[in-house]
């Protein structure tokens, strides 16, 4: 980096480290001493600050405060909640640069991506504020003895949100918006590796939302488990790994809670021989989500199936694109990608890269990195000669690793594309859009892109098949999922029930 850039990024890190990061319950900052966890900059490997961790008592207090606040919040007219959510969007947008820098220093996101995440969060809040009036009940036909029957949509009360490390501020806000606007209070448990932006978001929320309506509790698995098992948190939403999602669903089973979960994927990208090879090679690299969160994306199309007729030329183009990628300090605008979020995750990605080599895949770019280098960096890695049964073709790497597989016939292609326990996304690149539509029907995935990838216009549902999760996010169905439907039957007099058909 040039001297002026190095000075600038050092100054930005110093500003972030100079702040005090704590948490609030019911709008009041917690002052008592707590155990702390270091927030580590994945670029420098230095501690940014020590974050106080919530205790089990704090979870109880936060739930009680959320319940108390939620009663009044849920009784507001929907227009008032929508107005408050728009104000939340405004304050997020006003602090987008600050929130973005926090995610760059704390999570390793490229600064342009991190700032865009904050703007996207504001956009999602406005989208759900605009949908708030659509949360309506239903009217039913006249019945003897009950001339008026309808349903109401009512909030659950307190919603627990457990969000991952790859887009901290975006997920803390976006995934809370539909629950908030439908009248629920929300308690967010961010990843213990990327807590700073969510804590700052909670401070900003207190400027525009009633105290206790939006709470962030920093902590590890114990805090998450306490939230999952708490009897006064009837609705949960989780984003993360399948293994942790299974724990969440087991923990929620005792209280029979409503749980939605987005659990990741091992997503295929199918390349047909009639494509523009340079264009699709660039798209394949982009759809790894390298430039937004170095491959740490659940929808990343990391398994690239290329027809044998163009396989070698396609690989050459991919390697040409990858060779131009600049890896370095994510605060430096000249860098394309930064580090992965934390050391343990870097080590897991390394281990999967090693497994690929050991199983016979051929690394053409990247590979085992130099671990003498400071920072949790993983260079963009491209594997050829990958077989469908290899770990790198079966397990979610969640890093900048592309596995290229060769195919020759469609039946084998579809079998291999579907032969994983996940089903989140898939992409098809072909000049024959009609044929691509037929192939799309056969792919076991919640989203299928044709001649595009890694984009979801506002309002399109997001969610997967198989182990990729339960429920949809980002649309009207998501909004309705934070309400319970209550049937109301109005009789004419005391004898009304005699005229009604029994329900059970």
In the CATH classification, which architecture of the largest domain applies? Answer: 3-Layer(aba) Sandwich
Fraction of residues in helix: 25-40%
Largest beta sheet: strand ordering: 14-15-16-13-12-18-19
- State the domain count: 2
Largest sheet: 7 strands, mixed
Distance between the termini: 73 Å
Return the CATH class of the largest domain: Alpha Beta
Overview of this protein structure:
By secondary structure, the chain is α/β, with parallel strands linked by helices. The protein folds into 2 domains: 8-263 and 470-485, Aldehyde Dehydrogenase, Chain A, domain 1; 268-450, 3-Layer(aba) Sandwich (Aldehyde Dehydrogenase, Chain A, domain 2), CATH 3.40.309.10. It is built from 18 helices and 22 strands. The chain has helices at residues 3-18, 56-75, 78-94, 96-107, 111-131, 168-174, 177-181, 196-205, 221-229, 242-253, 277-286, 311-322, 343-358, 391-394, 410-418, 433-442, 476-480, 496-499; strands spanning 24-25, 28-29, 36-40, 47-52, 139-140, 148-155, 158-162, 185-189, 214-216, 235-239, 258-262, 268-271, 303-307, 362-365, 381-384, 401-407, 422-423, 425-429, 447-450, 465-466, 469-470, 483-490. The strands form 6 sheets. It has a 7-stranded mixed β-sheet with strand order 14-15-16-13-12-18-19, sandwiched between helices. Helix 3 packs antiparallel against helix 5. The longest helix has 21 residues, at 111-131.
